[in-house]
């Protein structure tokens, strides 16, 4: 159980959410081992989750991790601390930084462009996976809708293969 | 994508002067002052009045303090204080359970569920506590002061969890009332009635209309009676029954049908439980045809209850089977929303085939 | 190695009443694990020598400017400051020792040395004991009546008489009760008569519930006891709302809600406790931990140290008490009530006890537990005999008083049943009233239809429901 305690639920501050010492103290209410970790510290989160996972799998027990963080907007300065540490180890450079940023940006833009241009789902996917197998009522509704779309295509968004 | 969807989603125009249409509510009279308001402002006004007129009334729910995610509770906390208007923890069963307790002590508790899609954790409290509170106690206790507000319905991009219309589940619960307004003016009057009704009420607000619908709303304290349907458009060839935002779509279909010489009578049910059978029955006995439309999936939808009842009462007067134009039997889809919805043309087609049966 | 992971100061409970072990701090060193992954990333050895600097630099940009000291040991997250530690330590799943249980009387009813309790007068003590006896006898006789087929159903409170009566005695009549279904003793204490109990069980026209619910689903607005509903724990959040109302109205009263060990697993328990804490509501949560939820022992119900430890999970003060010790129950509830009202806070009381009876008349508990176990609790840990010993030691009770009481109650009970059985059922129109404040059209129509059906086929319908 990894709780991202970021201090806010939309506009609700945690003082309006609970009056306990955060989430970590709730572990003992269930007989569950727990830990509170600095959610903005990549190494701490890594270590905590690694340890917790080992415990969970080896001892077959649940573990509660409360990761304290803050819901930030555009830029996350937590990147900066991890970056500094990696740099201190000689594993990162400014060059690496700008390379990965421009690569990621390029990839994301490409993905968006491609996604926007790609075909829509075929109309039959509106009716599939409601159940493992399409029941009668959905088969009928699919037929009805197909007829309708063929008859009055101008009423419907284009690109959905019938 | 957004623009595509919006092109095919309903365009909203509350006609001011359509022929014989009373889409806009008809509670105006004479010299009262009115103001042009959208739906969330009208609801906000109702809440202000409710809290003003009863010092033992409360408004609470997730994020209501700053005005709410749809702004329906704007200004309430500042005006009435955080003891009466407050945020709750994120817990629907707690919100409703707490509200029942407040109501059981004679207070009015107007609770907000952020989206109707999230009301289900509270279903146990609503069905097993609120609905039975008076009955099981032999009328020693009641929680009539409870009103549960929740935004419902399609919004163009809401997908599975921001578009649901769950009214049918609640219409199956004796002991509560279910109310759905169609416009700002109606919403204010119906909400005040719901809050003051001595029974627990579930009040679904068509979120699509929060900003989109604008209407002249009287500024004073007024109430619109529950369990009274309204004929908002008179006609003679076919009766259409609906509620909430769907009525705007249905009215467009009525206008188109009229161009083809079909005279449609459109009824706003307003209260689904207990519903006004008499008005619908009288209308169908006149027209001989019935069409019901709702966004919720067709199977087990509230249209089925209306259809069965009218069939029982008007069988010999019916010229055609009762028609239902509703959402499909799938979870509410995102990209497929325009296909899923009971559109104007689907309704128009159904009007024509019913009339030509 | 075992070091307690300190939480922020704001949650340390101030010592409240020195005389009672409320909110006993669990500072006693818990088992903590020191768990670094073996063969973990070699980088761990190369951690910057000053984790403080690293951590603080992280926070500097994300925090408001109030944070100036870069060597601070404190992190300022929304919701308050927390100190930090560079060591990876998990808080153990439970304290080494269980939370101790408050009691005043030993198993034999002798007052423990140095015991602290709220004194009870002779009048109160005698009424408490008499009501415990009455409750037990009422249960006996109704249970028998069900076995004889005169009642459709019954549930006893055997073993929990002290919880029932002592808690009621410690409350004021203005405190509103939200029961589960095993607390008729609270009604009894407040003056509900044996006849009134019988009327509900027989569902006759004098039943305040108008015959709509199964036996033992009592309710009385006069006695501030909300009607029982069989759904588990749904009453808990209702109680919190009611408590909030009392606070807002400035009443010298609290809400009190009862539930079992099973009830503490329901989502409504979590919802109610959390709301109570956030809303600062004067509500007592009294858990009758009687070891069984029908056939489910507590080991299948939860893995915490009972229910009392859940208080801190919500920031709620709590106490564990011997539920079979009437004096301890009385004192705990008395103190809790005062705290709740004066300080506008919820209190959790876990009353340890044992469900001596079956879950209900639909249950035979010997199918899942040993008869010996039941018998032991019934004899060795009986709440009535323990309290009786204490009452007698004060010279306030005697064998004569006992037999007088018992024969009187027996007579009253039998008469109450006789009358209740004879009294006619509620009128048919009460099937349709109170669904709403006023019957809507559809119900008026349905009543007509039902009456027609009865006229056509009277043999299909019970003849004891007046039309």
From TrEMBL, chain A:
<feature type="domain" description="Dehydrogenase E1 component">
    <location>
        <begin position="1"/>
        <end position="83"/>
    </location>
</feature>
<dbReference type="GO" id="GO:0009083">
    <property type="term" value="P:branched-chain amino acid catabolic process"/>
</dbReference>
<dbReference type="Pfam" id="PF00676">
    <property type="entry name" value="E1_dh"/>
</dbReference>
<protein>
    <recommendedName>
        <fullName>Dehydrogenase E1 component domain-containing protein</fullName>
    </recommendedName>
</protein>
<keyword id="KW-0560">Oxidoreductase</keyword>
<dbReference type="InterPro" id="IPR050771">
    <property type="entry name" value="Alpha-ketoacid_DH_E1_comp"/>
</dbReference>
<dbReference type="GO" id="GO:0016624">
    <property type="term" value="F:oxidoreductase activity, acting on the aldehyde or oxo group of donors, disulfide as acceptor"/>
</dbReference>
<dbReference type="InterPro" id="IPR029061">
    <property type="entry name" value="THDP-binding"/>
</dbReference>
<dbReference type="InterPro" id="IPR001017">
    <property type="entry name" value="DH_E1"/>
</dbReference>
TrEMBL record, chain B:
<dbReference type="InterPro" id="IPR029061">
    <property type="entry name" value="THDP-binding"/>
</dbReference>
<dbReference type="GO" id="GO:0005759">
    <property type="term" value="C:mitochondrial matrix"/>
</dbReference>
<keyword id="KW-0560">Oxidoreductase</keyword>
<comment type="subunit">
    <text>Heterotetramer of alpha and beta chains.</text>
</comment>
<keyword id="KW-0809">Transit peptide</keyword>
<dbReference type="GO" id="GO:0003863">
    <property type="term" value="F:branched-chain 2-oxo acid dehydrogenase activity"/>
</dbReference>
<dbReference type="InterPro" id="IPR009014">
    <property type="entry name" value="Transketo_C/PFOR_II"/>
</dbReference>
<protein>
    <recommendedName>
        <fullName>3-methyl-2-oxobutanoate dehydrogenase (2-methylpropanoyl-transferring)</fullName>
        <ecNumber>1.2.4.4</ecNumber>
    </recommendedName>
</protein>
<dbReference type="GO" id="GO:0007584">
    <property type="term" value="P:response to nutrient"/>
</dbReference>
<dbReference type="InterPro" id="IPR005475">
    <property type="entry name" value="Transketolase-like_Pyr-bd"/>
</dbReference>
<feature type="domain" description="Transketolase-like pyrimidine-binding">
    <location>
        <begin position="37"/>
        <end position="212"/>
    </location>
</feature>
<dbReference type="InterPro" id="IPR033248">
    <property type="entry name" value="Transketolase_C"/>
</dbReference>
<dbReference type="GO" id="GO:0009083">
    <property type="term" value="P:branched-chain amino acid catabolic process"/>
</dbReference>
<keyword id="KW-0496">Mitochondrion</keyword>
<dbReference type="Pfam" id="PF02780">
    <property type="entry name" value="Transketolase_C"/>
</dbReference>
Automatic annotation (TrEMBL), chain C:
<dbReference type="GO" id="GO:0005759">
    <property type="term" value="C:mitochondrial matrix"/>
</dbReference>
<protein>
    <recommendedName>
        <fullName>3-methyl-2-oxobutanoate dehydrogenase (2-methylpropanoyl-transferring)</fullName>
        <ecNumber>1.2.4.4</ecNumber>
    </recommendedName>
</protein>
<dbReference type="Pfam" id="PF00676">
    <property type="entry name" value="E1_dh"/>
</dbReference>
<dbReference type="GO" id="GO:0046872">
    <property type="term" value="F:metal ion binding"/>
</dbReference>
<dbReference type="InterPro" id="IPR029061">
    <property type="entry name" value="THDP-binding"/>
</dbReference>
<feature type="domain" description="Dehydrogenase E1 component">
    <location>
        <begin position="132"/>
        <end position="427"/>
    </location>
</feature>
<comment type="subunit">
    <text>Heterotetramer of alpha and beta chains.</text>
</comment>
<dbReference type="GO" id="GO:0009083">
    <property type="term" value="P:branched-chain amino acid catabolic process"/>
</dbReference>
<keyword id="KW-0809">Transit peptide</keyword>
<dbReference type="InterPro" id="IPR001017">
    <property type="entry name" value="DH_E1"/>
</dbReference>
<dbReference type="GO" id="GO:0003863">
    <property type="term" value="F:branched-chain 2-oxo acid dehydrogenase activity"/>
</dbReference>
<keyword id="KW-0479">Metal-binding</keyword>
<comment type="similarity">
    <text>Belongs to the BCKDHA family.</text>
</comment>
<dbReference type="InterPro" id="IPR050771">
    <property type="entry name" value="Alpha-ketoacid_DH_E1_comp"/>
</dbReference>
<keyword id="KW-0630">Potassium</keyword>
